[in-house]
Amino acid sequence: MSKILVTGGTGHLGRDLAPALTGAGHAVRMFARSAGQDSSVEWASGDLATGNGIDEALHGVDTVIHAATLSPIARRGMRLVDFFSSPSSVDVDGTRHLLCAAERSGVSHFIFVSIVGLEFSTLPYSRVKLAGEQLVRKSSLPWSVIRATPFYYLLAQMLGGLKWLPVWPLPTSPSNPVDTRDVARYLAEAVSDGKRGVRLEIGGPDTMPFSDFARQYRDALGLRRLVLPLPIGRKMSLKMGLVATRERLGERTWKAWLCQQRERGH
Ligand SMILES: NC(=O)c1ccc[n+]([C@@H]2O[C@H](COP(=O)([O-])OP(=O)(O)OC[C@H]3O[C@@H](n4cnc5c(N)ncnc54)[C@H](OP(=O)(O)O)[C@@H]3O)[C@@H](O)[C@H]2O)c1
User: Fold this and answer.
1) What is the tens place of the pLDDT at every residue in 13-34?
2) Please, which residues bridge with residue 44 across strands?
């Protein structure tokens, strides 16, 4: 059993990490700017951007899962500004603060949650995220990098932004987004499997053209929209962050996820 500090505990992945880790018998401390709802874990408050509270949060911790990020796109949907800049205060400066503190406190395993295909994407958020990942790879700590494809919630958020359009022109790039619960289960395994370094990437169980994911979304919501498939090349797909991986597959399908969201009234 490890004492694990999870950053980003109030986020989409973080909320699924709590049950995955406690279910595997680990003691979990979540690091957040303000405590979340889950009372099955301990909460430590602080701010990665300033470094406040990190040393205290690491007391007695042997494993860190760094799942905090500052992605404006994930928070409020895509805007024009996101093609020009993305803040680095959490993903780069915050990662640096966390690594330094983890080195000081003798953490034995630092797990970084990352994104498939980062080096090919030209989106500013990807550049920032890649810079954070490189800090981890260069660190003197024993580390693991686990890359995932885009999460279902992000896909739903992006497609939700198209609802007002009668026609959705969308790329046919092969994609397999994934459920955060599958990623959380994988991370929980990675805590105690003894492996280190760049791990197998994880994606969802279905690989389809991106436009087909949009069709399933439209049908699940009962919308009358025309999805217009746009064939684009592999290089351009990767630049746009449209990725797929077969290295490790999650279990929950996009259809099942959409169905559950509907049952929950979302
Ligand atoms: N979303 C995707 O499609 C996707 C795909 C592959 C990998 N990933 C990676 O998976 C991880 C989790 O992503 P997610 O989508 O679950 O993120 P998310 O829902 O946007 O949550 C981000 C988390 O980071 C925390 N955070 C932000 N600024 C902070 C700061 N200054 N100090 C401390 N904590 C701060 C947030 O806490 P507050 O409550 O304080 O805001 C929140 O808990 C990230 O590393 C991301 O890059 C995401």
Assistant:
1) 999 999 999 999 999 999 999 9
2) 31
**Residue 79, in any domain of the structure:** yes
Q: How far is the CA of 224 from the centre of ligand 1 (A)?
A: 33
The band of 1, judged by pLDDT with boundaries at 50, 70 and 90, is low
Q: Which pLDDT score, from 0 to 100, does residue 76 have?
A: 86
Contact 69, 118 (CB under 8 A): no
What are the beta bridge partners of residue 28?
4
Query: In this structure, what CATH number is given to the domain that contains residue 156?
Result: 3.40.50.720
Nearest in space to 11 (alpha carbons), one of 31, 41, 39 = 31
Q: Is 164 helix (H, G, I), strand (E, B) or coil?
A: coil
Residue 45 pLDDT: 96
CB 205 within 8 Å of CB 250:
yes
Residue 86 CB partners (closer than 8 Å, separation 6+): 71, 72, 123, 124, 125, 127, 128
Q: Residue 66 C-alpha to ligand 1 middle, in angstroms? A: 9
Q: What average pLDDT does the chain have? A: 96
Does residue 264 sit within a domain? no
Q: Check pocket membership of 159 for ligand 1, CB cut-off 6 A.
A: no
pLDDT digits (tens, 9 = 90+) for 70-122: 999 888 888 889 989 999 999 999 999 999 999 999 999 999 999 999 999 99
Range of the domain at 27: 3-259
Residue 266 within a domain? no
Count how many domains the chain has.
1
Q: Is residue 265 one of the residues assigned to a domain? A: no
Ligand 1 proximity of 126 Cβ (cutoff 6 Å)? no
Do the Cβ atoms of 78 and 157 come closer than 8 Å?
Answer: no
Ligand 1 center–CA 72 separation, angstroms? 10
